[in-house]
Every structure is written in C-alpha cells, then in structure tokens.
Design brief:
Layout (H helix, E strand, L loop, with lengths): L13 E3 L5 E3 H11 L7 H8 L3 H13 L3 E4 L8 E4 L4 H6 L45
Antiparallel strand pairs: 1-2, 3-4
Length: 140
C-alpha cells in the first residue's frame, strides 16, 4: 500500500447523506448553521431535516459549539439538549464575550536576585508582643 504525502491528502472530512451523496465538512457546517437562523433544534431534528446519520450531525454540531457559533441549552424539549445561535446585538456581546483579552508584549525585563533589595517579611503575624526581631518592610 502506497501512502500519500501530506500535500496530496485532503485534510477535510467527508460525510455521507442517507441517499449516498458526499459533502465536505466546511459545506456541511454552513448548511447546518443556516438551519439555526430561525429556530432552536435538537440533534435528531437536524439529522431528520438534512437526511443524514445522527452521529455525523453530532460531530459537526459539536464542532460548531467549540467555535462558539452555536450555543447549547439542556432541558426543554423532552429533556433533550437544544442548540441555537446567539443573537447578534451589543448586549449579547457584552454579557457573552467570545474571546479573552488580547494584548501585545512590548518589552521584557530580566532581573537577578543580587540586584533586588534585602527585605524580609514576617511569616506569621499572630505573636508580635513576644518577638524581639524587627522586620523592615521598606515603607519608611
């Protein structure tokens, strides 16, 4: 058996409909995403609407959830998980942020132990009356 090089291989997964036609995952995910524009659906309802195996639909919907395109809600219709799209508005973006803060590192400073001040702090502060050691915190 001859193996193909990575450039010759397609990194996109193929999925089969019940009638036998094949589709790539990027086109299938766009098709499934359009179903959620108007209503909330479960995985079995999506599988019935597009006429595909439930396992394949489960993989694509979970991929859309990881990318924060779809959101899931447990309960509701017969205690099944319902998937839906988040509404696009400013309040939704405020209360449901997609990404964390993005920042850029301007510079980096390295310091040695020898360059720092010799400051000691008490380990416990519970018994200062009987202590004869004076701790200098450097605030004076």
């Amino acid at each position: 058996m001859k193996y193909q090089t990575l450039k010759e291989q397609s990194n996109l997964h193929w999925y089969k409909f019940n009638d036998g036609t094949k589709i790539q995952i990027d086109k299938l995910s766009k098709m499934i995403e359009k179903l959620f524009d108007t209503e909330r659906l479960t995985m079995s309802e999506v599988a019935e609407k597009i006429n595909m195996n439930k396992d394949s639909v489960t993989h694509v919907i979970r991929r859309l959830c990881v990318k924060s395109i779809l959101t899931r809600q447990c309960g509701g219709k017969n205690k099944q998980t319902v998937y839906y799209k988040e509404p696009k508005c400013l309040l939704a973006e405020l209360y449901h942020p997609v990404s964390s803060l993005k920042f850029k590192i301007l510079n980096k400073t390295t310091r040695k132990v020898e360059d720092s001040l010799n400051v000691s702090h008490p380990i416990s502060t519970s018994n200062h009356r009987n202590s004869f050691v004076v701790y200098d915190s450097g605030n004076e």
